Amino acid sequence: MKKHDEARRAFLVGAAAGAGALASKGLVSEAEAANQKPQEHHKVAAAESANAAMPAGHGGHGAFFNDEDAAAVEAFAERLMPGAPGMPGARDADVLNYIDLALSGAYADQQDFYRRGLAQLNAYCQATYQMPFAHLEAARQDAVIEALEAGKAAGFTYPTAQAFFNTLRTHTMEGMFADPVYGGNKDFAGWRLVGFPGAQPLFTPEDMKSKEAFKRLPIMGLQAQAKATPKRT
Asked: I need a labelling partner for 21 at 20 to 30 A (CA). Which of 85, 123, 124, 182 fits?
């Protein structure tokens, strides 16, 4: 992993580890267009069913994004939170699925924001590098993201370049570290990354007395259990 990627991961993971309410309700949004949180679901199975119901051939999207927009969002999120051996990134955590489901539900008021922002993103990349964002090499994707963050990417009106960057960064963080019930943090990838054990049905007397970091693994979801269970032949 490049030093640039390591620095970005360290910053985001540090921010996640320091957010107390992060694990159960997602990060508090600071982006201009992100003012709501996904509504609470009563059963984890509902979210897992939503994941299982994604249309065939639409790896992690299909509720709102078309293939082109999904590719751009997935690539953008991965550059914000790049994966590495032993360290899951945005693709591993299925951040795309989280954002896709959110935009078809609790974040539906931001659909136009995303449509316009993604169109402006690809127009800027076409004008600068003659290809859409998802097709750029990592170094150029990083350059585009830095231009957005600094408000120096030309052609952005609504949303502004900085507002678009801030929203995608916020939603990437939510998809990495929020409760898997919302469609991201696949197999607890984000929680494992920061050492958060997730919800536990029981804490033993020894757990309650211990002053050491709690290291029990998160409760495994139904889909993860199915993958981990050897198939009978």
From this structure: 85
What percent of the chain is modeled with pLDDT above 90? 51
Residue 28 lies in a domain: no
pTM, to two decimals: 0.71
List the end-to-end C-alpha distance of the chain, in Å, as a whole number: 40
Is residue 182 within 8 A of residue 48, CB to CB? The reply is no
> In terms of residue numbers, what domain contains 124?
44-196
Residue carrying the six token digits 């993103």: 121
**Exposure b/e, 124-154, CB count within 10 A at least 16 = b:** bbeebbeebbbebeeeebbebbebbeeeebe
User: Do the domain assignments include residue 155?
Assistant: yes
- Angle between helix axes 111-129 and 138-149 (nearest 10 degrees) is 120
Tokens of 123: 């127009």
* Model confidence pLDDT, tens digit, residues 24-82: 344 434 344 443 333 333 333 334 444 443 433 345 678 999 999 999 999 999 999 99
Q: Per the structure, how many domains does the chain have?
A: 1
Tokens of 79: 């550059």
Q: Is residue 125 part of a domain?
A: yes
Q: Does residue 178 belong to any structural domain of this protein?
A: yes
